[in-house]
Amino acid sequence: MFHRYVAGNGFHIIGAHTDSPCLKLKPVSKVTKGGYLEVGVQTYGGGLWYTWFDRDLTVAGRVIIREKKDGVVSYAHKLVRVQEPIMRIPTLAIHLDRTISSEGLKVNNQSHLVPVLATCIKNEMQKFVADNGPKQASENANTKHHPLLLQLIAKEANCEPGEICDFELQLCDTQPSVVAGATKEFIFSGRLDNLCMSFCSLKALIDSSSVEHSLDHESGVRMVALFDHEEVGSDSAQGAGSPAMLDALSRITGSFNSSGSKLLEKAIQRSFLVSADMAHALHPNYMDKHEENHQPKLHGGLVIKHNANQRYATNAVTAFIFREIAERHQLPIQDFVVRNDMACGSTIGPILASGVGIRTVDIGAPQLSMHSIREMCAADDISYSYEHFKAYFEEFTELDGKVKVDY
């Protein structure tokens, strides 16, 4: 399997992020007002929060459970998702806000983004936490979160409410992803930014490496790196701003040679990173938001992102390499730069390029409704992305050997 690889050879990486803007439960989420049980949430990332109103919402995330067996207490980590809709953030009736038509919806993130869980009177009638009902949560947890909410979470975690020690939960839409549009050409889904690129890159890695003899002539390391917290700056233990990438490259190199630390710099110079993050497609109702020569379109294939101020890490050489792979396989490819009179977003690309010193190209599939609770992209672009990533893994070594550049 490693016939041609030696320590110091390069890494061929696709990097993406797994997080999306959302509403996360506060450490103390119990809110009661106006006869309603509500759940306190905090905003994560730069979401289009008005799209979260009037949606059928639930919660998902991880829970820390106290387990006791044979008198020994241990603590387990479980992933949960309450399947049915249990929350909603209702909009205010237009009769009570006559200016909304002329001035637009003005959302106060603290006051208005508070989902309704139940009414107080119905909660009492149901007696979810009555003395003769299910076991009540611990006193500490009971003061921080509604017992009704803990009961729903405990049911999914297959435990008692009192066994819940802590959790990290976020709100999510219960409407499933669909292939849609009059000609079934679109994908309507939450969190396309950036689970779409995460999925395509991981599938491409698996498929490019799982066939017998597929790695016989590979001298590098094919790799996918998925990071958290990109939407809030990447500065975390599992974000692109952490040492995680550099440490991984170092450990892999060192596992093949005791002098791995001396060979790491050589490996980095031979490496290449595709920073894959969804791109802004041209919006037919806001044509002026894109300049005429850089208008990524749905079904147009992956978008190479450029920015002279290094908000993207693409340069002429890295763009050429990625574009050449597309041309070899007759895959469509597009270019994007933001208008000079608009601010430019960024990705994990510049963070890793500067932190690791690796050649990088910033790319992404085009989409609409970015950072909405319900985004959309073209089904064709999923296929193009997968094929492009797979060809990158399979052909980069050979192509890079033909590129003579003094970096």
Summarize the structure.
The protein has 407 residues and is α/β, with parallel strands linked by helices. The protein is built from 10 helices and 17 strands. The chain has helices at 100-103, 120-126, 139-144, 147-157, 192-209, 244-256, 260-269, 316-328, 348-356, 379-400; strands at residues 11-17, 22-33, 36-44, 57-69, 72-81, 116-119, 164-173, 178-180, 186-189, 221-227, 272-276, 279-280, 302-305, 333-336, 359-364, 366-368, 375-378.
Descriptive account of the structure:
The relative contact order is 0.17. This protein folds into two domains: 221 residues, 3-Layer(aba) Sandwich (Aminopeptidase), CATH 3.40.630.10; 152 residues, Aminopeptidase i, Domain 2. It is globular, with a radius of gyration of 25 Å. About 2% of the residues have low confidence. Helix 5 packs across helix 10. The protein is built from ten helices and 17 strands. The strands form four sheets. Strands 10-1-11-15-13-14 form a six-stranded mixed β-sheet, with helices on both faces. It has a five-stranded mixed β-sheet with strand order 8-9-17-16-12. It has a three-stranded antiparallel β-sheet with strand order 2-3-6. With 407 residues, it is α/β, with parallel strands linked by helices.
